[in-house]
Automatic annotation (TrEMBL):
This is Mn2+/Fe2 transporter, NRAMP family. GO terms for molecular function: cadmium ion transmembrane transporter activity; manganese ion transmembrane transporter activity. It is found in: Membrane. GO terms for biological process: iron ion transmembrane transport. InterPro entries: NRAMP_fam.
Length: 405
């Protein structure tokens, strides 16, 4: 159903706003997975307060990427793979399979993270924890209104994660003044860290999660460009808020001279900063981050395939359920496939520059966006991001060699 936002009683506007907020949380919680938590802890431990600048720089880059992709897809009403195929026949198929395969492998890690979260919260063994978590995710897609169920689920858990991390940040008493100073005027700048954060926030399927959600809800066309733009910025804002609060919480621990456990940096930070209660809170945050990433990865991976194969489009919910089931089966029977995660990470690094350049090339084609005029400044900055993320993606290919050493 296309929501035109013009209903006199405000009902359509309310529905659009709810969906856009849900899409923002879907994208944000897709980015906030187990890797997000570990990454933030490791970089905070390494760069201390100067990590604040890396967060700020990555957020600015993320906004450029997200605005470009959401606006172009939103105006065209076409999903990423269809736009890519329009620009270069066959490219959409490559992106779709790369996203789906990468999403499946990463989903195994997400299921593992959810299982670990339940283990921390209440001692549930890993295999039952994985099955329970997968079952909860599957239940969302069995709902008659699976879009609304997914929106509400990611909103609730997203807000819960932010609240719990805020609590721990208050408990650890971080040097806020120093953090703010280093965020603006850093003593150390590590651009590789910045690019790594970008890849983890808008890389692979993540930036398309929210954009595909608004297309499914029918919020498309130039008349919705303002809403779409705000939704894309809100998504990055939610992710940035979570990252910065987590940075402050961990910085408080590190600044006090305490040593993080290298085997599980974020868990040890919560334990050292807020005791056993903090450790339980970490379990809740980890489970919430992991299970919402399972939902986001599964939904978006299948959304990349459904317009290419009619059988998938007509049975979307069952393909998503199958995707989650296979992810859980791989984890419970094989475990986390470390080498596959490395390979998926390397391929994932190529998805963002390829998809972004496809969007930018399509932004000025009438057969894609009609009479829409994409801002030239966004286009220029977008191509700059293609170069940066392309370099990061090519660099990540070196990881493949490690598989055969």
């Amino acid at each position: 159903m296309k929501s035109n936002g013009t209903n006199s009683n405000g009902r359509s506007i309310g529905i659009s706003g709810s969906v856009l907020l849900g899409a923002a949380f879907l994208m944000a919680t897709s980015a906030i997975g187990p890797g997000f938590l570990t990454q933030t802890a490791v970089f905070t431990n390494k760069l201390k307060a100067a990590f604040g600048f890396a967060i700020l720089a990555s957020v600015l880059i993320d906004v450029v990427v997200q605005l470009n992709i959401w606006r172009i897809l939103g105006v065209s009403g076409m999903r990423g793979q269809d736009v890519a195929n329009r620009v270069l026949p066959g490219l959409g198929y490559f992106l779709a399979f790369a996203v789906a395969m990468g999403g499946l492998v990463f989903n195994v890690g997400n299921v593992a993270g959810a299982a670990m979260g339940l283990n921390v919260i209440c001692g549930v063994p890993m295999t039952p924890g994985a099955i329970i978590s997968a079952g909860i995710a599957i239940a969302l897609f069995l709902s008659k209104e699976m879009g609304r169920a997914m929106d509400n689920f990611t909103k609730v858990l997203g807000i819960l994660m932010i609240a719990l991390v805020l609590f721990v940040a208050v408990k650890t008493h971080p040097p806020i003044g120093l953090a703010l100073k280093e965020t603006i005027l850093p003593s150390t700048i590590d651009w590789l860290t910045v690019l790594t954060l970008v890849g983890g926030t808008v890389g692979g399927y993540i930036t398309f999660a929210g954009a595909h959600r608004i297309i499914d809800a029918g919020i498309t066309g130039q008349e919705h460009i303002g809403e779409i733009s705000r939704g894309s910025i809100n998504a990055i804002g939610i992710t940035a808020l979570m990252r910065y609060l987590l940075f402050l919480a961990i910085l408080g621990v590190v600044a006090a001279g305490k040593q993080l456990d290298p085997n599980n940096p974020p868990a040890s930070a919560f334990l050292l900063g807020a005791g056993n209660l903090g450790y339980r809170f970490f379990g809740v945050v980890l489970w919430s981050a992991a299970v919402t990433s399972v939902v986001g990865a599964s939904y978006t991976s299948i959304s990349f395939l459904k317009t290419l194969f009619k059988s998938i489009e007509s049975n979307q919910r069952y393909w998503i359920i199958g995707f989650i089931t296979v992810s859980a089966l791989i984890f419970t029977t094989i475990g986390k496939p470390v080498k596959l995660l490395i390979l998926a990470g390397a391929v994932n690094g190529l998805i963002l520059p390829l998809s972004l350049i496809s969007m930018l090339l399509a932004a000025h084609r009438k057969d894609v966006v009609g009479d829409y005029k994409h801002p030239m400044l966004l286009t220029i900055f977008g191509y700059v991001m293609v170069v940066f993320t392309g370099w990061m993606g090519i660099s990540s290919l070196s990881k493949i060699a490690d598989l055969f050493r």
